[in-house]
Amino acid sequence: METLTKQQQKDVRVLGRFIEVYCAGNHDSATRSSFQLPENLGSFDLCSDCAEFAEYAIARRLKCPLEPDKPDCKKCKIHCYAPEQRKRMQEVMAYSGRKLILKGRLDYLWHYFF
Fold first, then answer.
1. Is 79 contained in some domain?
2. 95 touches 63 (CB < 8 A)
3. Nearest CA to 36 among 12, 7, 8, 61?
4. Burial 22-41 (b: 16+ CB within 10 A, else e)
5. Is residue 35 in some structural domain?
């Protein structure tokens, strides 16, 4: 496997973080295990359902056909996610984005509006 670009690494870490926040807030009674990001970019504690979704989301991000000039997914004309998964990602991003902004991650606020 080829190494990830800096943008891919950042996006994978953000995906993992957002899914972890969502999982902790919505699946608090589920059993969690460690989910390892590719290329040792970190690990997160996720339930099995969220770990499966994280694998799907990361695989889609890494296979993006618009790689050199990739726009934000919400502004993209090509949607890599299946409709059901896309709806779930929107839910994850909305929930986690608000939580992280309230915890002081103002850089996510910039991404949210621009």
1. yes
2. no
3. 12
4. bbbeeeeeeebeebebbeee
5. yes
Model pTM?
0.83
1: in domain: no
Q: Which residues contact 50 (CB under 8 A, 6 or more apart)?
A: 19, 20, 22, 23, 27, 35
The 10s digit of each residue's pLDDT in 43-94 is 999 999 999 999 999 999 888 887 777 777 777 788 788 999 999 999 998 8
End-to-end CA distance of the chain: 32
Contacts of 107 (CB under 8 A, 6+ apart): none
As for how many domains the chain has, the answer is: 1
